[in-house]
Amino acid sequence: MMSEVYDYIVVGAGSAGAIVASRLSEDPRVRVLLLEAGPSHWQRVWTMIPLGYAKTYYNRKINWMYWSEANAGLGGRKVYVPRGRVLGGSSSINAMVWSRGAAEDFDEWAAEGNPGWGWADVLPAYRRLESHPFGASAWHGDDGPVRISVPEAGLHPICEAYFAAGREVGFGYNRDLNGATIEGVGPYQINAAGRFRQSSARAYLDPARGRVNLRIVTGAHATAIEFDGRRAVGVRYRRGGADVAARAGREVIVSAGAINTPQLLMLSGLGPAGELRRHGIDVVADLPAVGRNLQDHIGYDIYYRARVATLNSELASFWGQVKAGLRFMLRGDGILTMSLNQAGGFVRSAPGRERANLQLYFCPISYEKPQVGSPKAIAVSPEPAFSLTGSPCRPSSRGRIELASADPFAAPLIHANLLGDEADVAEAVEGFHVLRRLAAAPSLAGIIAAETKPGSGTTSDADIADYIRGSAYSIFHPVSSARMGPDPATAVVDHRLKVHGIAGLRIIDASVFPSVTSGNTNAPAMMVAEKGADLVKADAASG
Known about the structure:
The chain is an alpha/beta fold. It folds into two domains: about 1-150 and about 195-295 and about 400-415 and about 480-543, 3-Layer(bba) Sandwich (FAD/NAD(P)-binding domain), CATH 3.50.50; about 150-190 and about 300-395 and about 420-470, Cholesterol Oxidase, domain 2. It is about 25% helix and about 20% strand. It contains 14 helices and 26 strands. It has helices spanning about 15-25, 55, 105-110, 120-130, 160-170, 200-210, 255-265, 275-280, 310-315, 320-330, 420-440, 440-445, 460-470, 520-540; strands spanning about 1-10, 30-35, 65, 80, 130, 145, 185, 190-195, 195, 215, 220-230, 230-240, 240-255, 270, 285, 300-305, 345, 360-365, 365-370, 380, 385-390, 400, 415, 450-455, 475, 505. Strands 1, 2, 10, 11, 12, 13 and 26 form a seven-stranded mixed β-sheet that branches. Strands 7, 16, 17, 18, 21, 24 and 25 form a seven-stranded antiparallel β-sheet that branches. The protein has a two-stranded antiparallel sheet with strand order 3-4. It starts with a strand and ends with a helix.
C-alpha cells in the first residue's frame, strides 16, 4: 500500500472542504491533502453553467444520487437525496439560492452550549465569504471569494405580480433577503456571477491550484480514518483500484457532508457501539450521536396555469432552448445564468408566530422532475404556468444515517423521517393556506387561469395534509448528523468542531449544524468552513 505524509488531510472537496483546504494552504509552511471521490468541476461543463443543475440532477458521474428509506410521514414514499460528487460538492450542482439563515438560528446555536457561534460571531465569516453587489456594509462584504448576484434585471416579468401579491396580503417587499431581516418577499440572491456558477471549487480552489503545498486528488474514495489509540493519524482511500494510506501530522478534517461524514466515521469505528459491532467494525469510541439528529427541509407545490407568458413559453420548445443557449454564449446573460427559483422570501404562516417560519419559492415556470434514467433534464409543460412552493423553516422531525454494511462503497441507509412529527404536518398545512392566500391576492389572481395541482377541490385541512404527505419532497438540505454540542451523548463535536474524545480529528461541514437554519443550507455550510479553518489555524498557533 502506498503511503504519503501531510500536515492536514481534508476528506471531501465540497461546499466546506474546498474552502477549508484553500484557507489552510494559505500558510506555505503546511502541506495539505484534499481528497474528493468525484472528478474535477472543469471536466463537467454543466457544473459551471448556473442553470446547468437541470443536467446534473440525475448524473451519476458527479452526483451520489442517494435515495432515502421509506418515510412513514410521506405515506411510505422514498425521497431522492442528490449530493455532489465533484469538486465543489453540492455547491456545484445545487440551485444556488444564497440564503444565510436568520440571526435567531445562530443565537440558538450559541445558547445550546456552542460559544462563538452566535449571529455576531458568524456574520463576519459571511461578510468575508462574499463579494456582494450591494457593496460593503454591516451585512455584506464586497471583496470575498464568492461572487453573489441579485439578478433583478433578469427576473421574469411575472415575478412582479408575485411581489405585488406579497404586499397585498401584508408580507411586505424585502429587496435584501440577507440583510437586516430575512422576513418579507423578494428576489433570491444566488452564488453566480456573469456566466458562471460560484461554487466553492471555482471561488476557492481554482485560485489556490498553483500552491505547491496543496495537493488535490480527485477520484479518491476515502474508506477509513486511521487511529493510533484515540488519535486520528491518517486516512485510507482508494483511487484507480489502488489502496493508499495518507498520514496526517496535525489533523484529519472530515468534510464529506451530512450523509457521507457519519458514514465514514462509523466505518472507522466512531459511532453507536451496538451498530458498529453488528457490522463487525471494531469500536474506537462509542459516540451515540453519530448519524443521529438528521434534519432536512421539505417542500410542497401548488401549480397554476397562467393567462400570461411564463418561462414555459421560452423553454418548452427545442428552439427556445437553442435561443437561450445562444444568448448565454454570445451575451453571457439570460435564463442559463440564473436559478429557476427566482423569487421567494420568509413569512409567518400565522399571526401568532413569533418569527418567520415559512420559506417561499416562486418559480415562473412549471415542470416535472424527470424519473431516474430519463434522457431529459426537466420536462417543461408547453402551456404557460408557474408554481408556488412552501417549505417550513424549522422542522421538529429528526432522522438518522445508518450503515447498510461495512462495505465503504455501499450507500448508507438514510432514514430521513420527513413529516415524522405531527406538529410538522400541521405547520405545513398552515403554510399551504399561505400559498393559497398569495394566489388569491389581486395581482396573482388576475393572471391565474386555473389551479392545476392539487386543484380547487382540495380545501379541508385533512385533504391538504393528504396532498402534502403524497407529494412533498426533500429540498435537499440534510444537516446535523454529526451535530455540535457540549454533551457527547447528544453531539459529535464540540464548539471548536473537534470530535468528542478523539484527538487530531475535526468535522467541518453541514453535519455539525446544531439544528437546521431557516433557509437554504449551502451558504451556512460555507460559513462553517470559513470559521472552521480559522479554528484549525488558531489551535495550531497556540500549540
